[in-house]
Design a protein that fits this description.
Length: 297
């Protein structure tokens, strides 16, 4: 597990400032998994989670409160700085179109991905997603599905269920709330080749969901087991302890699958081969973390 991932509930956000979100990082990359896999995407990672999965590969403990307006400016600046910080010009496809009077910016070629942690812990995220829909090619939110927070029409809801754990060992899948399961546009599961783990199978209720929703997809991603923190993250956090949003958005988010010693490659091979065969057997979609193979955030 990266970070401490202290479990919190919705009560953590009961005094959230109006029209604000608690954000840990914001960065531009390619979407590595799910329905928009391979597409340019702006990621907005929200703080905190209601679970503490032992295999989690993200930091979301620390963050900053930002108003919707501040977030919009941050998103614009993030896209702009992705190139200008390297001394390059922003390519034409990424330049926002401003001909629409009802929005500040319109990015016709970029997907906004709201993730976490668990983004649906924050009730304010619903209105933010609604306001963001006209500004991007698509808006996606990824949730473990336990909470009943409203996901507006038009937002792509990727429900990625997880298991309850005891002393770091997965015991049993949490079943998503009926509201979220009925609203979900697709399901996404992390898979392990370990036959003793519940992560080695897509749960029965999900197979039934697929039978009831034949036009919707189930995506399966091979689980990566990390031997250590990525070296740059380890060194930076050892030096500074608490780091800035800019550092969280760059160093924390960039993981190279091929960094020597980072990932248990023997287990990675088993999990990738197993997941591929499982998808072929059940008609599900294989969804690998493509950004890791490209050394992208």
């Amino acid at each position: 597990m990266f970070g401490t991932n202290e479990k919190v509930g919705k009560s953590f956000f009961k005094n959230a400032p109006k029209d604000s979100l608690y954000i840990t990082s914001c960065f531009l990359s390619l979407q590595g998994e799910g329905p928009f896999s391979g597409m340019p995407a702006l990621f907005l990672r929200l703080c905190k989670c209601n679970l503490d999965c032992s295999f989690c590969d993200t930091f979301f403990d620390d963050g900053e409160w930002m108003t919707y307006e501040q977030v919009n400016k941050k998103m614009y600046q993030t896209i702009h700085d992705h190139w200008t910080s390297r001394g390059e010009s922003v390519p034409q496809w990424a330049v926002p179109i401003t001909f629409r009077s009802d929005i500040q910016y319109y990015y016709p070629n970029i997907v906004l991905v709201i993730t976490g942690g668990e983004p649906l812990l924050q009730n304010n995220v619903s209105e933010f997603m609604r306001r963001s829909l006209p500004s991007f090619k698509a808006v996606q939110v990824e949730s473990n599905g336990i909470l009943d927070t409203e996901v507006p029409d038009g937002v792509t809801l990727v429900c990625s269920p997880k298991c309850a754990e005891k002393v770091g060992v997965a015991i049993k899948y949490y079943t998503p709330s009926k509201t979220i399961l009925n609203r979900a546009d697709c399901l996404k599961f992390v898979m392990s080749s370990d036959p003793t783990s519940p992560y080695s199978q897509v749960p029965v209720w999900a197979h039934r969901w697929k039978d009831d929703n034949p036009t919707k997809e189930i995506y399966c991603s091979p689980m990566n087991i990390y031997n250590a923190l990525p070296q740059k993250i380890k060194l930076l956090r050892a030096e500074k302890g608490t780091i800035s949003m800019a550092e969280r958005s760059t160093v924390d988010e960039k993981i190279n699958f091929f960094e020597p010693g980072l990932i248990d490659m023997d287990q990675a091979q088993k999990n990738h081969e197993y997941t591929g065969k499982y998808c072929l057997e059940h008609g599900f979609r294989l969804s690998m973390q493509q950004h890791l193979f490209c050394n992208l955030a």
